[in-house]
Amino acid sequence: MKHRLWLVLAMAFTLSACQSAYYGAWEKVGVHKRDIMVDRVEDAKEAQEEAQQEFSSALEEMQAMLGSDGGDLQRAYEKAADEYESAASAAENVTERINGVESVAEALFDEWQQEIGEISKASLRNTSQRQLRDTQRNYQNLIRSMRRAESKMTPVLTTMKDNMLYLKHNLNARTIGAIEGEFNSLKQDIDGLIKEMNKSIQESNKFIESMQSS
User: Which long-range contacts (CB under 8 A, 24 or more apart) does 82-86 make?
Assistant: First the structure.
C-alpha cells in the first residue's frame, strides 16, 4: 500500500515538474499562462462546436437508417456506425480540451496569488487580488458550464452504442421498428446536449473577452 502511495506521489511530482517546464519554456519566448489559458478555452470551444456537428450528423444518419429497407439497410447501418465513432471521438476531444483548461487555470491562479504576495504597495496588491477573484469567478462559471455540457455526452453515446449494437446483431426491418421509440428519446437528448454546449460556448466567448480586455 505504501509502495503504491509513493508511486502515485512520484507520478504527480513528475507531472507537475513537466507542466512547470512546459509553461516555463513558453514564458521564455513571451507566451504566458494567461495567453495559454485563452488559447485553451478557444480550443475547448472549437472542440464543442465540432462535437455538436458530429452528434447532429450521427442523429441524421440514424434517422436515415430508420427509413431504409432491403439492400440499403446494411449500407445505412455502416454510415450510422461511422458517425457514431466520429461522435465518440469528438466527445473524447472535448474532455481532453476541458482538462487542458483546468490544468493551466490551476497553474495561472497559483502563480497569480503568489505574485500578489510579492507586491509591497497595499493599493496595488488589493487591486490585483480583486482582479484575481473576478477572473476566478468568471472561470468557475465557465468550467461549470463546460462540465455540464460534457456530462450530457456520455448518456447520449451510451444510448447510441446500445442501439447500434442491437442493430448490428439483428439487422432487419423488424429491428428497425423496435428502436423507433428509442430514436425519439435520443433526439431529445441530443437537442438538450446541443443547447448545453451552446451555453458553454457563450460562456467561453464571455471569458475570452474578459481576459483580453482586463
Answer: 83/54, 83/57, 83/58, 84/58, 84/157, 84/160, 84/161, 84/164, 86/54, 86/57, 86/58
